[in-house]
Batch of 2 targets.
Target 1
Amino acid sequence: MLALLPTVAVISVLPVVVVAGRLQVWMVPAVVLAAASSYARPDSAGGLVALGVVALVWLAARPGGGSAWTLVVALLMFTAHACLSLQSTAPPGAAFDPVVKVRWLARSAVVTGLTAAIYVAALGFRHLPHTSTQLAPALSLALIAGVALLLRREALGGRTPEKP
Amino acid sequence: MPDREAPPDGREGRWVSTQAYLRAAVLGISLLVAALLFRDPGLTVLATPFLVVTAWSLVTQPRTVPALRHPQSLPVLREGEAMLWRVEVEAVAGLDQAAVLLERDEYQQLRPPGGARTAPSYGDDRSSVTMSVEARSTRWGVQRVGRALVSATSSWGAFRWGTVEIPGLVQTTLPLPAVFDATAPTPHPIGLVGLNRAARRGEGSEFATIRPFMAGDRLRRIHWPVSLRSQTLHVVSTWADQDAEVMLLVDASTDLGTSEGIDGFASSLDVTVRAAGAVAEHFLRHGERVGLCVFGPDLLRLAPAAGRNHLRKVLTRLAGTKVGNRDAAEGKLLRLRLGANTTVVMLSACSSQLALRQAATLSARGLSVIVVDTLPQHLGGMSDPAITVAWRIRRLERDADLRALNRRGIPVVAWRGPGSLDLVLRDLGRRSSAPTMARR
C-alpha cells in the first residue's frame, strides 16, 4: 500500500492537469515514467526526478497562480515525497509501528495546514499591485522560519515535536 | 540472553543526509527561486511543503551517534525451539525511528517473517529503542546466525545513522531426540550400577532367594523369621544391579535426501542423528553407560559415561555432526578399543560400504552389533526420473548388502521409533549366554 501511494500520487497529477490546465502529449509519458522510476527505487534520485517532472508539467500546463488545483498538486507532491521518505526509513517488508504512523500523519497534517495557509495568503496577494507579488514567497519564508524557531525551542526543551 | 555494550563504547557509524532530505531541499529551493523568477505565487505553494520539511529536518537533526547493544552469545536451543534476538539503540536526541534486518539462516524461521523490525523512539523518557525478532531453529547443527543490519533515522527520514552491521554468532541447536523406548534388557550388563538384573547374584535390591548364612554375608541381610523357624541363620540374597556399556556408531559419511527441518521431510542424516539422540537418552535414563563415535569427515569420539550431563555432551557432539567421507577414518574405526561386552548400535542409512564393513568387522570380533537402518521412508529431491531409476538400482544393491550382513549374524532393523530394538536386544541377550566363536 505504502509502496504504491507515491506512484498513485504522481499519476494523479495528470487528471488534475486535464481539469485545470492544458494537457500536452509529452506530459503523459513523462509523468508515467516519473511514477515508474519512483516506484522502482524509492530511496534513490528517482523520487527527485519524478517530483521535478511533476513541477515542470504543472508549470507547462499554465493553470494560473490562483487556481485551487495548485494546492491539490502541492499536496499530491508532498504525499509522494512523504511516502517515499517513510518507505526509505525501514527495510523492505518491515511493518511500521502504529506510533510511527500516527507521528507521520500528525506531521503531515501540520505541513498540509501550513501549505493551505500559504495558498490562502497567495490568493490575497493577487489583488494587490503587481510589485507586491513578491510578498508571497517572502511570507512563505517568514512562516517557515517561524515554524523552525518554534521547533528549535521545543527541541532545546528536551522534547520531541510529537510525543505520543 | 547476555548483552554487552559493543566495543569500544558501542558507538560506530555516523549520521548522513538521505535522498529524502536532498529531495526536499532541492525541490523547495528550486521551486521558490522559480516562484521569484516567474513571479508565480502558485509555485510558492508548491515549494512550501518541501521548505517546511527541510527546515523541520534541519532543526531536529541528531548530533550524537547512538550506542548499540546487541547479543554477544546465543543460547543453546533444541530443534523447534525459538529465542528472542534483541538489539537496543540508544535513544539520542533527534532519533525518530530505528530499524533492524536480521539475516535468516537456511534452517531458521523468523517472526516477523522477513526478519525486519522497526521501533519508534519516545524521546528522553526511555534510554533506548529496543527491537526484537523471534528466531526459531528448525534443524540441529552448529550454525553462524544473528548477522543483522541496524539503522536509525531522524524526523522525515532526513538523516540516517548506519547501516551498522552486527556480526553473526555461533549457535548450537541440539537434535530433538525421536520418540524411543525399549522394554528388552540390554545384553552384557557388566558394571555395578544400573537397572539391569545381572546374571549373577550380588549386592542389589531385587530379591533372589533366601539361603543359609555364609561367611562374608552382611548382618543386615539376615532374615530373622526364617532363621528362627529353622534355628539356623538365613540371609536374603539379591540379584546384582548392573549397567551395560552401549557404543553408538553414527554413520555421517552420506546424507541422502533433502532436509526440510523439523517440520518437513527428514534426510537420512537427520533420522540418524535424532535416532542416536533417542537411543542415547533411553539408555542413559536407565543408568547405562553410553559412548559415541561419529564417523564422517572426521572421527568424533566420546568415551562411555553415564548420567544426564553425559546426555548433554552426546547431544552437543551430535549437533556438530558434518557430512563427509574420509576413507582414512576407517583405520581409526577399526581400533575403537571397545570392551568385550560392549553392545554396539550402529545407526546408518546403510548406503556406504565403509559403515557396512565396519559392522562386519566389529561383529567378527565377537561384539554384539545391531545395525539400525535410518534411511527415511520418503526421500526429497527425487523428482528427476533418471535419478529415481538410479536410486531404485542403488536400493537393490543396498538390499543385497543388508542381506549379506544378516547372513553374518548381524541384525539389521529399520528405525521405527519406540520398540525398534526390543526384538533384537532380546535375541542378543539370549545369544550372549550361548558359546560363541570370535576372531580376535
Target 2
Amino acid sequence: MFSTPPPAARSSAWAASIRIAWSSLGGRHGLCSSAAFEAGSRPRALRSPVVDRDGAPALLCEGVTKGFGAGVTALAGLDLEVPEGAFFGLLGPNGAGKTTLIRSIVGLTRPDRGGIRVFGLPAWGEHAAEARKAIGYAPQDVALDRFVPVRESLMLHGRYFGMPRAEARRRADDMLMAFDLTAKANSYAHHLSGGMRRRLLLARALLHRPRMVILDEPTAGVDLELRHDLWAYIRSLHADGTTILLTTHYIEEAEALCERVAFIRGGRIAAEGAPSDLRERFGALRLEDVYLQVVGR
Amino acid sequence: MGALAEREVLRVLRLWTQTIAPPVVAAALFIVVFGVALGASIRLIEGFPYEEFVVPGLVLMGVATSAFGNNATSIYQARNDGFIEDPASSPMSASQLLLGYLAGGVVRSLLIGALTLAVARAFVAYPVEHPWALASALVGTSLAFSALGTVVGLYSTGWEQQNVVGNLVIQPLVFLGGVFYSIDALTEPWRSLTYADPIFYMVVAARHGMLGSSEVPLGLSVGVTLGLAAAMLAWSWWTFVRGVGIRT
C-alpha cells in the first residue's frame, strides 16, 4: 500500500512510513498549529502527559452485568480498569463477553447493572455524549454504508461526532491519504477489497481524533501481510498517546502489541497483567499457556 | 443531526428512479384512468367533477405510502447492514437520530406530493381554495407516516414484516379512506368503519384544502391529522429513546 521495500525490511519500513504519515498529519492532535504538530512528532517521553482533569482512567468498568434472557449472561459483574495511554488487550473465547463489553462501552448494548466510565464520564446517561466523543470504535463486523462513497462516509462520521463540514472533509482527505485509500475516495464500500474495508473502518474510528480507540478483533479474517500493516498503524497510534483497547483471539497479536492483557471468561475478568507478569505468575513459558490455564476448558 | 438528515435526503435523491418517479407515475396513471378516462361517465361527486374529486386523495395517498415506505426501508436497511451503529454510537441524542431519519421520509413524500400536484395540473384544472389547510394535511400526513415508518423499521426483524404493514394495513386504510369516493355514498357498516379510519380525515383535510368543502368539518379533519402526527412522532421518539432495534 506504500512503495514496496525489500521484503526483509518491509515491516519496519512500512511502520516507519506510517509513523511519518501519521506524525505529519499531526497525529491525534490535528494539523493546524505548530504546537499540535510538535505534540504529534516529539518523542513520547518528552511530551507533556495527557492527563484527564481528575486523573481518571481511560476506562473504568465496575460490576458490569448484562443478560440476554433465557439464562444467557454475557457479562457477570465485570470489573476492568484501563489506564490512560495504555495498550490493553482483551482476550477470550467466543461467547466470553468481549464484544458485549465493547458494545456496552460504546453505547450499543445497555448493561443491566454496574457502571462504565470513559475518562471519568459515564458511558450511559446524562454525559454519555461527551464520553462517546472520546471513543473511536472499529467493530468486528465490517458494516459500512454502501449508499455513500468512501470519502462521504468518512465525512458523515466526522459530522456525527460534531465536526463542521469543512473540517470533516479535510480530515477525511487526511485519513484517506494516511490509509492509502485516496484512489477509492469516490468508490462505494461494496467495491472495496476486504483489506481496504478494514483500513476504512480504522480510518473512520480515528477520524474525530478520539482519546481512546477500541478495536474489536481488527485483524480477524485478514491475511498476514495486512495484519502486520494494521499492527504498524495501531503501534503508531499508541506511540502518539492514544489509549488502545484491543480484543483479539490471537495470542501472538496480544503479545506483540499489548502492554497489559486481560483474559475474560464467563463474563468476568479471569486474570490481568503485563504478559511477562502473567507468564511468571502462572509459571508458563508462553502467554498461550497462561490463556489455556485461565480460560481453557 | 444535519449530517444524518443530509445522508437520508441524498439517498432519496440519488435513487430517484426508485424513490420519486414510480409513485408519481402511479399517481398520474390513477388520475388519467380514474379521473380523465372514467370521469366523464361518473356523475358529480359532492358537486365536483370526478377528476377534481380524486386528485387530493391521490396526492395524499402518495405522500402517506412513500413517507412510510422510505423510513421503514431506510432504517431497516441500515440495521440489517449494520451501518446504523455508526450514528448510534455517536454523541447524537435520540431526538437528533429521530429528526435525522425523519428528514428522508418527509422530503421524499412532500416532493412526491408536489410533483403529483404538478403532473395532475396537466390533466385537471383543480382549485386550491385553502392552501394552508392543504399544506397542513400534507405535512401532517408526511410526519405521521414517516414516524410510523421509523417505528416499523426499528421493530422489524425481516423485510416481510414491512410488507405486511405496508400492504395489509396502510394500503387498505388508504384505499378505504375515501380517496376514490365520498363517505356519503356508503351505507352502514362501511360508513362507520370509514369514520374509524384515521386516514379518512387526512384525505378529507386535503380535499377541503383543494376543493373548499368536505364531508367533515375542517377543524376536525386537520385536528385528527395533526394529532395523529403528534402521536406517531411521540411513539417514534420513545422508540429511539428505548433503543429498540439499535441498542440491545
